[in-house]
Queue: 3 jobs
Job 1
Amino acid sequence: MDATGSRSAGVAARAVFGATAFGLSLGLASLPGPAVAADPIKIGVIAEAQAIAGASIPQAAQMAADEINAAGGVDGRKIEIVAYDDHSSSADAVRAFQRAVNEDKVNVVIASYISEVVLALEPWASRLKTPFITPGAASNEISLAVHRDYEKNKYTFHGYLTSAALALSVCDAAKELLVDGKKMKSAVIMSEDAAWTKPLDVGYEECLPKIGLQVLDHIRFSPDTTDFTPIFNKIEASKPDVIITGISHVGVQPTVQWKNQQVPIPMLGIASQATNSTFGKDTNDAADGVLYQGVSGPDAAVTPKSLPFAEGFKQKFGNFPSYAGYPAYDEVYYIADAIKRAGSTDADKLVDALEKTDWVGTIGRVQFYGKDEQFTHSIKYGKGLITGLMLQWQDGRQISVWPKEVAKGELKFPSFIKLTTN
Amino acid sequence: MLVLQILIDGFAISALYALGATGFTLIFGVSGVLNLSHGAIMVLAAVAAWAAGSVLHASTYVGALIGVATALVAAIVTYFLIVQPIQRSSKIPHEEKEIFVLTGTLLWGIMIQELIAYFFTNNAKTVLPIVEGVVSIAGVRTPSNEIFTAVVCCLVILLLWGLVNRTRTGKVVLAASMNPRGVTLLGYELTSVYVVVWSIYGVLAGIAGVLLGMFLGVSSYSVGPLTASAFSIVVLGGLGSVSGSLIAAFVVGYLETLTAYLVSPAYRTIPALLLLVAVMYVRPQGLLGRR
């Protein structure tokens, strides 16, 4: 067994050397004169091309790469994006990761908005010692794993808010908008059963009572639910002032049924599909009134970079980026920045440089938690860094309503919503 | 209150299941084909109706018609492109044809599903309801669209019953399901009988798909579950028996609704599947099956 293993390894090594030599000679032969361009920096992007949330990831990354290249690249090196479709499947994503690292020789990988997929890729980032950042997955486990075994898992970075931070962001917004603004007192949590909502629900259960919203009931449902009638009826029976959501795999169907059944209770929380600019059309404007958390939005100048990116993206691809598009765009920039500071694409040096990231991107000021903090390598949550936004669908448009500094509108609900003002 | 709620919600979903399964069982009864691209054709109808409304800005009625027409075309294409070539092939042994048709329609369904996901993404779509608003039935707030869905389903099933039992075309179709050779001896071309059946099927699947799009919404992920639900309803009711399918549709619809309300929405489909397994043990031919 061992003998075969080492022999095939030898063959593979020879083949690789042979190929490299062949590639080199071919490359040299085709180069015109002495101006030898440096090797490009390769960034692998693995995402869900058929899902709206995922489709924005490679597009946004490519846009950032084009801009950096147009400005001269990183120390003369161009950035090359190599995109892979994982069909929303962990197995496909792992194969793509292996291929990206072993065959296409990428230096860094940006991948996926689905926590299950990212958690499957994390051990591969460790095994193949390749820096890896997710632009949209939320599960706490991603950064907890880095904290638990830093030496092994330090290659993984969590470029999006953890579920714990998302819960905080929702509670911070709910406090100002609903408790202070509308005198609301009670809530029902409605979330889909998935890896990312487990820590989210724990966060909700903890922070909602603190801000003054009593949790009357907690409904978790299967992500393949199509008929939400029983769920809404059950929620209505406990008479809450607001439904706090944690939904990503579903979105269109509960929203449309909420409107068709005229459930008189507003919905606020995480609703990833509502972040897509096509959500209004997909729901035939049933989305009007839905409040959702985002890290950026088409009308929100979170930083001076947010609006130009959103507009540029729309011009190029016909729609505004999904929520995962903003972090993906920033990630390419701060990877380039880290490579510049490290002076190398060596994995360990790059990890060191990424840890020192201090980058103002489209979603705020990006810094990562350190080795000794609970959510190692996750982006920091807080004022002056990233707080997230609360947006609302109003008349077919996404309007930011919180925090005050970036808000473009006031809360506005469809007529069937009965706000309790007691 | 809860009882009434379950009665109302269960009726709408059951009627929709019944309509979806009727076409499926009709084709099996007449031509022995189990069409596993059923879910894909339903989703195609809903997505076409959605696209007509959202992209081309057609009115809801025109959108719904476009949806049904799309399913009709898709059903006829399925017959000529997938089913007929397999049935006529001399390279496939006769006894293996059923399994080839199963595989062929399954793959065809997957192709349609992937195309929908490619062009319209896998996010769910909903068709703008023809009637909006809610009405109160003895205190239960019910969307008018839910009532509309139930009424249309019942009407279409009645129409189908009339077509099969009261018209000449219907009688030929009925005869073909009993004795295909006999029908050819009377001078009817079997191919044209099959085209008629597939057309009826296309319209039924189209209406069911568009109504489903209005009532609950669909995505490319719905393809598998829709085929599976039609398949289990038809097996439960007895393969090829239209009335068996109708009864089974209501059994499944109410069992699911009861589970969703009284146990948990997460376990909605499980009891119906357990019932199916139990029926397979005790009465393999299904509730009203003949063989």
Note: The domain at 164-294+388-402 of chain A is CATH 3.40.50.2300 (Rossmann fold).
Job 2
Amino acid sequence: MKKILLGLMLLGTLLASQFVVAAADLEVNTPAISAIKNSMQSRHAQLAPFYASGAIGLTKDGLIAVRDANAVPLAQRGALTGLVKDENADRSKLYKEIAVANGHPEWQPEIQSTFAGRWIDKAQSGWWVQGAGGWTQK
Amino acid sequence: MKNWMLGLALVCVIPACVTINIYFPAAAAEKAADKIIDDVWQLKNGAAKPNVNNEDPAASTAK
């Protein structure tokens, strides 16, 4: 009888560890997420020079913001504002879609703050990032 | 006695499954974020190459 019980507990442990494995990865390969990613990837070519000049920076909440409009010629400022707006819309959609794709829409704020840290960590040197004390240059 | 031990086993295992599904998987989220950021910013070698190739002709025609 003890053997059966031991077997049951072992089975239980195995099942539990399967749940752990299943939870080890977040689903990020849905069509919706891929579409947002592609849109952000093609926009990045336009945004990259603005990151480098310090005109825009990465905010602590996982978005981007115009940091120094004077770094941009007047004629380009309108276009830049549009780019930043579109990028932030895509980013917010991305965080929401990841939460929804994993069956937990309530995870969106946590996903957003996880991304915020990773964007800033991966930013190139010279780019501006927002910390607790304000803007700093990497 | 049997039932009591089986009950104990279930009490140990079931919360483990439930807990994992309720709490935010921070490590998995970081991994997912890294993957997406690498794609968007093209930080991996495979994607970085065409970027370099694109930049060179553009720079030379601009000058």
Note: Residues 25-63 of chain B form one domain.
Job 3
Amino acid sequence: MSEHDAPVPFRAGGFLPREHPLAGAATLIALLLLWQAGASLGWFSTAFLSTPIGIARALISLAASGELWVNLAASLQRLAIGWVVGTLGGLAVGVAVGLFTLARSPGMALVSALFPIPKIALVPLFIIWFGIGEGSKDVTLAFGVFFPTVINTMAGIDAVPRALIRMGQSFGLGRWAILRKIVLPGALPAILAGFRITTSTAIILLVAAEMIGAQHGIGAFVLEAGNLYDIDNLMAGIVLLSVIGLCTSWLIGRVERALLGWR
Amino acid sequence: MTPDASALRLEARGIHHAFGDLVVLDGIDLDVPAGEVLVLVGPSGCGKSTLLSILGGMLKPDGGQARMRGAVAADCLNALTYVFQDFSLLPWRSVAGNISLVLEGTRLSAAERQRRIADMLALTGLSAFADAWPRQLSGGMRQRVGIARALAVNPAVLLMDEPLSALDAQTRALLLDELAAIIARAGVTVVYVTHNLSEAALLGHQIVVLSRRPGRVREILRIDRPLGERRASDPDLLSIEERLWALIRDDAAEADREIEHV
């Protein structure tokens, strides 16, 4: 036996990380300053790694010459067409696979067989089929976006509680009303989560397709800058890609907040 | 009963159902006269909820038939209407939106729809919560939405699957009184599944005791006193509760020791 005469010690501390947005921003700024200082003090050669100021100068002169807008417009157009087409197709097939026995096994067999193919490997094939122009690029993007959209849509529909669907049926709602008012809103969180994956997939494929065969576009621009050892422009292109990624994820965040306020 | 109320009776004839090898219902015959409340009680797993699903056409029985007979009021939009144990509210629709769901696509005009929603919200004490999300409500308020939604279609038969069992004891007692008043006033035919024997005694005109698997009708008790004149503390109701418990007790103990099959 042991005697006790002490306050009960508190034992449930820690394991509760908190967010500090300022600390996040400060980290990035500090890194940029360190990077710039490293170059200015000659810690590394600017022939191999550009500097924040160098990248900013490159971006400004690209904007002034108009080259920036030509490449950006080409890339954004491909991104928009490819992503929208792939998403619409993926949603349609995903809904069919999620709802109908007839579509389920054939659809899943097809998705399982084609999804693992690295889409970049298909770019040369698509160029043969659809030509070196816009067609092959749009198809590459759409193809890459299509499969994850199918999988996420199907998973989202599978996750809609059957009890809610039965409730709708018990009140005599028609199939279309159940699909529109119960199934799709219930699957929406999974579908929007899928959009985050497919937009970044689309950016990866965009760059790959533009590097294989394009006159304009950020991918082509980065490749050309690399061939010319133009490190400032090369990294300016990479920064642009990062900005595009940030913008799309911000947009999806806005859509999520607008549509999923009920959560 | 209001003059334009439905007068629909529900009949079960020789209903038999099995999940695989497991016979859950075996030769169930029941009559639910129009305007009466039939309460189904029995140990867990005796097939009460299965029977309720069959009565409302949500499950096809392996044998036998559920029939409805009689007149349905002109303004009834869904004759056989459920109230669910888990409420089954759409989380992405507001309280009013959940009620609106079952009125959309019907012959009601937009103005009539709005009026019915407002009436049902008022009836169930939800008027102040019309725009709230379901997640913001307590369990009791959520089930009020479930009840308001069911009443909005002016049902001929209400099929209630343990509507109060997801609630805490205090909320349950409050809502039970309201439910009894609403049922008495609406004059609808009700089939009410519960494992709570005092709910059974307070609400039932007939209390049907089902036996443990395979579910068969073991006994039917009648209470003819109107719902409005019943109090939980009435001695005759308490003695009915005791009789019900005596009937179920051994089966319930047996059911509790069973390994889940389904």
Note: Residues 52-259 of chain A form a domain with the MetI-like fold fold (CATH 1.10.3720.10).
